[in-house]
Structures are given as C-alpha cells and as structure tokens.
Amino acid sequence: MTQSSAPARANSPTTTPMDRTLLAIDLGTTTGWALKSPGGLITSGTVSFRPSRYDGGGMRYLRFQNWLAEMDRLSGPIATIFYEEVRRHIGTDAAHVFGGLMATLTAWAEQRGVPYQGVPVGTIKKHATGKGNANKAAMIEAARARGFSPADDNEADAIAILLWAMETRGGVA
Fold first, then answer.
1. Measured distance CA(28)–CA(129) in Å, rounded
2. Within the chain, how many helices (H) and strands (E) appear?
3. DSSP character for 28?
C-alpha cells in the first residue's frame, strides 16, 4: 500500500470504511474484478485486455486505464483498491503483462490519491479455502460456497480478495 502526495478523498464524519466503494482485482490478460458499493452490494466479473493483432504494445494498458476510470465514474469514487500480488510467474509474457498492469494500476491510484494494497496469492487462497496452495477449482468452489457464481478462476480470485479485505481489513488499506 502506498499513500500519494495528491489530495486524498476524505471521508465525511458519518462515513465508515465499509460505506465506501472497494475494488478488488486479479490482474492479467483476463482480469477478474469484484466491487463492493457503499450500500454493501457486491458485483463481480471479468474483462479481457487481450490486444488485437492491430494494437500497439501499450494499448492493453491504455484500455485498462480507461476501464479503471469507467469503474470509478460508474461505481465510485473508488476508495480503496486491493489486488492479487503475484511474486512468481510461470512464463515471461505473463510476468510482463502483470508488471505493466500493476504499474498502470498503481500510477492511476497515485494520481487520484486512492490507497491500494497488494495481497499475496497464498494469503488469498488460505483465507478463501483454508489452504495456501489451493488450485483454481478450489477457489471457484470457495466463491460458490459463499453464494457467488464466478465465471472463472479470475473472477473467483477477485471475489476472494474482496472478501479478505472486508473481513480482515475492514476494507481499509
């Protein structure tokens, strides 16, 4: 988590951390997301940032930045962002995509004074399933057991990140 020198969005004295919009993200070419609105409604889904054959190298990141702005405009203002902090990737391409998306996310948040926090993969898996090395199927099943219907493991991971943030951090980074 980091704090920016940009003006932060202040809470009114009657606003508690759980009365704010929280965004949880599983960064990747197919990005999973889960959002808790100030009223407590949780929505989730996935969005693809796969480049088309005609895109330049930076288009994926520009689309991600625009998506963040749209989420903030439609559901926000986003008060805190939590994301899955991956420390080891199987492939070089996945590491590059993750790094670019994380850089875009953190720069976007810094510009707006939105606090953000990376959550280690094992922490998310252990909170959701009881096992720090749970597989994708177990993460999907854990989300279903909590009443969600994730389309895939990316959405299930984002839901798990959001629930972890709400249950262990009170939604505050």
1. 22
2. 5, 5
3. S
Q: For the stretch 64-87, what's the b/e string if a residue is b when 16 or more beta carbons lie within 10 angstroms of its beta carbon?
A: bbebbeebbeebbebbbbbbbbbe
Comparing CA positions, the residue from 24, 132, 34, 164 lying closest to residue 83 is: 24
Q: What pTM does this model have?
A: 0.84
What domains, with CATH codes, occur in the chain? 18-48+55-168 (3.30.420.10)
Q: Is 149 helix (H, G, I), strand (E, B) or coil?
A: coil
Closest CA relative to residue 95, chosen from 110, 83, 85: 85
* CB-count exposure of residue 2 (10 Å: 0-12, 13-18, 19+): exposed
119-133, pLDDT tens digit by residue?
A: 999 999 999 999 999
Sheet holding 116-120, edge to edge: 42-48, 30-36, 21-26, 78-85, 116-120
